[in-house]
Amino acid sequence: MSEAIRVGIVGAGFFGSMIAGACAAHEAFTVVAVTDAMPDAARRLAEAHSASVRGSFTELAEDDAVDLVVVATPNHLHAEPAVAALNAGKHVFVEKPLGIDEESVGSILAAARGARGRLIVGHVMRSFPGVRRMVAQAGRGDFGTIVEAAGARRRVVHLPADPGDWWKLDRRRSGGELLHEIHELDLVVWTLGEPAQVLSVSGAPVAHGDGVVDSDIVTVVTTPGGALGRHSVSTSAHRAEWWFRISGTEASVEADFRAGTVTRYVDGVAVEVTGVFDDPAADESLRSSAVKSQSYNSGGPGPLWMRTAVTCELDEVAAAVTGTSTTLTEHPATAALVGIRASGLSTAGVAR
Ligand SMILES: NC(=O)c1ccc[n+]([C@@H]2O[C@H](COP(=O)([O-])OP(=O)(O)OC[C@H]3O[C@@H](n4cnc5c(N)ncnc54)[C@H](O)[C@@H]3O)[C@@H](O)[C@H]2O)c1
After folding, report:
1. Right CATH for 125-345 from 3.30.360.10, 3.40.50.720, 3.20.20.370, 3.30.1380.10
2. Whose CA is nearest to atom 18 of ligand 1?
3. CB 45 within 8 A of CB 17
4. Residue 297 in contact with ligand 1 by CB distance below 6 A
């Protein structure tokens, strides 16, 4: 490996810290700078990695010692640091969702156009080896003509009893569950490309403390060629599901993330079963996490599968920086724009 990619982290919270830890353990990266709106958080993370503290994302973006800026701020605060870093010629990794409104997504895309650095979006599930293979095989025509891509993420997400003013529970800052939990929607539109039509409907919101969370959102997209994308997300479903499927005229392939498997079906018969990760221990970790209850930001280093996922993502980030992979750079904004459009369409109990 040539020289390590020098990383500056904007947002030293739960995921910024997780990415910094994964960078430190990855030979392609070194963490050199950290900034956070809360100086103590920046100082703690910087100290853990012997990195410098920068006073603002602008200062960090202009730091000559930084090659790649990681934007891990809350969902509604991605645009300003991303644009500053792209304008300063840096490669930029923006956590998902790219943005929660058209204006901020548009400003990032405008800054990325003609920028020296690459715009890389944290759609981590694209990097899972089994998923990457599914989408590559679909693109090669291994399943025949693609007629459907579908995905679901449905489970009860436990929230703290007293979350305070937590941005994740405020849809004006999180974008709501469809955007915050965008992973499978991204896989669907990454597979199918730009949709021609977006339809979305949501169930009545469920009360939580002083606020509400979405109960259930179903989104359908169609492509200009007539393929169908189907997506379902819920944070209050007691029967958990977590899967992604591509169906063609010759075969279907389905990743069952709760089982850690990717299965190819022909005429209803399972003809091949592989893993989600090329690592049986990580697949087993998916299985053992699936049987436990789920919550946001449970803290700590996360289970093995999550750490493996972030390492796979960093492999793709390194390849994006060197221009040898487009896994995390193609269709950077499609899922966010579909999610924004769908959120505008989704009204409790009313199909549009
Ligand atoms: N890929 C995944 O699976 C995954 C998982 C968790 C979170 N995320 C994403 O990561 C991002 C961060 O989420 P989190 O859970 O770490 O949130 P968090 O609240 O734990 O951390 C966000 C941090 O950003 C800081 N911040 C806010 N405004 C800032 C600014 N202007 N400049 C610098 N720092 C600022 C906050 O002080 C906080 O420390 C979100 O976009 C989230 O959707 C992705």
Report:
1. 3.30.360.10
2. 13
3. yes
4. yes
* Core vs surface per residue 38-71: b (16+ CB within 10 A) or e: eeebbeebbeebebbbbeebbebbbbeebbbbbb
Query: In sequence order, what E strands does 249-312 have?
Result: 252-256, 261-266, 269-275, 294-295
- How far is residue 139 from each of residues 107, 134, 195, 299, measured CA to CA in Å? 30, 9, 16, 37
Fold held by 5-122: Rossmann fold (3.40.50)
Atom of ligand 1 nearest to the CA of 42: 39
Tell me, what DSSP letter sits at residue 189? H
Q: Where are the alpha helices (DSSP H) in 141-198?
A: 171-174, 177-180, 183-192
- What is the rounded CA–CA span in Å between residue 2 and residue 349? 55
Q: Distance between CA atoms of 125 and 151, rounded to whole angstroms?
A: 12
Q: Would you kindly state where each structural domain of the chain is located, as residue ranges?
A: 5-122, 125-345
Per-residue pLDDT of the chain (352 residues; tens, 9 = 90+): 469 999 999 999 999 999 999 999 999 999 999 999 999 999 999 999 999 999 999 999 999 999 999 999 999 999 999 999 999 999 999 999 999 999 999 999 999 999 999 999 999 999 999 999 999 999 999 999 999 999 999 998 887 777 788 898 888 999 999 999 999 999 999 999 999 999 999 887 777 666 666 778 999 999 999 999 999 999 888 999 999 999 999 999 999 999 999 999 999 999 999 999 999 999 999 999 988 888 776 666 789 999 999 999 999 999 999 999 999 999 999 999 999 999 887 655 433 3
For residues 220 and 185, give the distance between their C-alpha atoms in angstroms, rounded to a whole number. 10
* DSSP per-residue string spanning 45-100: HHHHTT-EE-SSHHHHHT-TT-SEEEE-S-GGGSHHHHHHHHHTT-EEEEESSS-S
Which ligand 1 atom is at minimum distance from the Cα of 297? 15
Rounded to the nearest angstrom, the gap between the alpha carbon of residue 46 and the centroid of all alpha carbons in its chain is: 24
Mutate to test the pocket of ligand 1, among 58, 71, 73 (most ligand atoms within 8 A of CB): 73
